[in-house]
Amino acid sequence: MQQRPTPETPGPGQESVWDYPRPPAIEDTDEHVQVWFADVLVATTRRALRVLETSHAPVYYVPREDVRVEFLALSAQKTICEFKGVASYADLVVGEERSADACWWYDEPASGFEPLKDAIAFYPRRVDRCLVDHEVVRPVAGDLYGSWVTSRVVGPFKGGIGTYGW
Predict the structure, then answer these.
(1) Does residue 12 have a cis peptide bond before it, meaning omega lies within 30 degrees of 0?
(2) Per-residue pLDDT tens for 80-132?
(3) pLDDT tens per residue across span 48-82
């Protein structure tokens, strides 16, 4: 296993992802969360859930009723999270624009993660932009994790090459 990196020191109003728990915690937030694709606002809410896991930037889950589900096309992709259960995926399709496996959700979340039922998470790198309180989100390195990096959190963040053993 790779040695744990040295966590960055958070400044005022910031959180270190190294203070997040494992297994992950779920937190309600009233931050304004938006997801844009092909010049269309496909999700907007002030009722998101943040999933917080050691070394990971938060993942924001939007209540299904706050997502324009007419732009989702179910894909065959399925993955398993050791904590949350089996995830289903959808492509985002707006007009001629398509982003494969741009979002995911848990139809039957594992015990302890029931609040994620009927909530959808989006990969920041597979949409045009995600915003949290009008701040543009940065995706983590790599394509495995759907973490949302904002100025509110400090790392280093799991996701890039060489970080999977953390």
Answers:
(1) no
(2) 999 999 999 999 999 999 999 999 999 999 999 999 999 999 999 999 999 99
(3) 999 999 999 999 999 999 999 999 999 999 999 99
Give the predicted TM-score (pTM) of the model.
Answer: 0.96
Give the pair of three-digit tokens for residue 62. Answer: 């939007």
Q: Where are the domains of the chain?
A: 17-143
- The CATH number assigned to the domain with range 17-143 reads 2.170.150.40
